[in-house]
Write a structure and sequence with these properties.
Blueprint (H helix, E strand, L loop, with lengths): L16 H19 L10 H26 L11 H12 L11 H14 L6 H9 L3
Helix pairs in contact: 1-2, 2-3
Length: about 140
């Protein structure tokens, strides 16, 4: 079975146990995204596969967080579980069909566009210029 991980796996060769765990963790996530590809999606089995892969990913991610907190950084700045990751678990588990159908990136692309425009504006007039540009006010 071809997966996204096949494209980069030979480049980042793990040199320690924690790096190997991190690679497996990323592979689980890559396999989950691959399973959601429209050409791969199978209504009868894909849902169960992605739920299982995401659960394995999260389990390994939390384990890496625990290791980093205990052995590397006591301030818990590595591998935190973020709200978007929690939301992803709900999308994966509760979507009626392919979770890709539940995603929207429109707001993120608009934020990127606004940041690009903002970089060209003078700080004193940036707010008004952005509101005029995107008709927000």
């Amino acid at each position: 079975m071809f997966t996204y991980r096949g494209c980069w796996q030979h480049v980042f060769i793990p040199t320690s146990t924690i790096e190997r765990q991190r690679q497996i963790c990323v592979n689980k996530l890559a396999d989950m995204y691959y399973e959601m590809e429209p050409s791969k999606w199978d209504r009868s089995k894909s849902k169960g596969v992605i739920v299982k892969l995401y659960a394995q990913f999260m389990s390994m991610y939390v384990e890496i967080n625990r290791y980093k907190r205990e052995h590397v950084c006591p301030y818990d700045t590595f591998y935190r579980v973020y709200p978007k990751m929690h939301l992803m678990s709900h999308v994966v588990e509760s979507s009626p069909d392919n979770p890709r159908d539940e995603w929207t990136y429109l707001d993120e692309s608009e934020i990127g566009d606004a940041a690009t425009v903002a970089a060209t504006l003078h700080p004193k007039g940036m707010e008004l210029s952005l509101m005029a540009r995107y008709c927000v006010g």
